[in-house]
Amino acid sequence: MNQEVASWPYEFALSKHYIKSNQRGTVRGQLFVNDRFISKQNVAASNAYIGLGPPGEAGSWQRENKGYQFWTKTDGEGNFIIENVIFGTYNLYATVPGFIGDYKYTSNIKVTSGSNIKLGTLIYKPPRNGATIWEIGIPDRTAAEFFIPNPPSQFKVHKYKNNSESKFRQYGLWEQYGVLYPKNDLVYNVGTSNYSRDWFYAQVTRKIGNKTYKGTSWKIIFNLANVNIASNYTLQLALAAAHEADLHVLINDEKIQEPHFSTGHIGGSNAIARHGIHGLYWLYSIGIQGKLLVKGTNTIFLVQSSGLSPFEGVLYDYIRFEGQ
């Protein structure tokens, strides 16, 4: 296998439309992350996925299916080499484990036949508006770190060679939410709850009767020692996948007519029904006015309002509450 990988692109193809290795180019560089709330110095973006794709917005590569894409991973120091790139104009994109958001290089990259493009040092500044007050999960674009239940007893448990997949690939896991939370929805208490135990891997619908479903409302309860009502706070909400969902965010009042934030109707990756742990990535930086918060106990409501089928819902990746 390694020999075949090393010999690609093959030289035996005779079609005039086939681009051989000596007609392709190389792009190299080194990626760092700058997040002043984690480190005063730039941090090497180790094991980041970095690649060339058709020009577009940051993150647009995951919805692109017509143009060429060429990807690799950085080493421990953030170095990368993207080889055998077909000539054309690209944008450079990256995702970095441990950090939210999508990186995009500022300029288009024009690869020509035989070119060796050296980009030098690149800096990614992930979304950040303030210091972390609390966080739930790990920013890795998957829901794998959250609680994954055992499958319903009537279904056969399938064994996988990769043990990390043995849990979330079992059939009917979404139905276990109603078993674990038969009447009341999930409540997460910051400081005492543990996301690997207390945060269900998917916010799905609840079955009512034989054929009816309704959306669910989760609560995040947290305490603030002080609140600056003139300041703005930020809820960084990263979703690992969404399917036919409409997620509302409400602050300290679940009964208001209009939510403080709504994603709108999003998602079609069907990761929940297909036993996946991630799909298309979504990130929302939600501003929260200080006057909506109180000193002491606060509650954020996450309401998945769509409720037509058992597969409507979201997989969370990571949630972070930031202060000024």
From TrEMBL:
Molecular function in Gene Ontology: carbohydrate binding
The record places domain Rhamnogalacturonan lyase at 46-119, 132-321
Q: Does the keyword Signal apply?
A: yes
> Could you name the domain of life of the organism this protein comes from?
Eukaryota
Claim: Lipid metabolism is one of the keywords in the record? no
Q: What UniProt keywords are attached to this protein's entry?
A: Signal
Protein name stated in the entry: Rhamnogalacturonan endolyase
